[in-house]
Amino acid sequence: xxxYVVQLRFDLADTDRRLExxxxxxxxxxxxxxxxxxxxxxxxxxxxxxxxxxxxxxxAELRDILAKDPYTPANVYEIATLSEWQPLFPIN
Length: 92
Prior knowledge:
Blueprint: E1 2-10, H1 15-34, E2 38-43, E3 49-56, H2 59-68, H3 71-74, E4 77-85
Antiparallel strand pairs: 1-3, 1-4, 2-3
């Protein structure tokens, strides 16, 4: 398994649309967390984006997960950063 950090950037002009889709997005994140695929996630206080940390087999699995996120077909974000991550300290 590998850890990946994804930083999303939100278009503030699409805030209303993003907020409409957010409950489904958050439900999806809960499913991923329960399945052990999502380590943590959360938006920035200014609502300009979010950071999500995934525990997946590889980038292909991560891209599949992102494609299934309700935010993706709604087109309410762009990926600012998607990088494999090697933490210095245990996450648990």
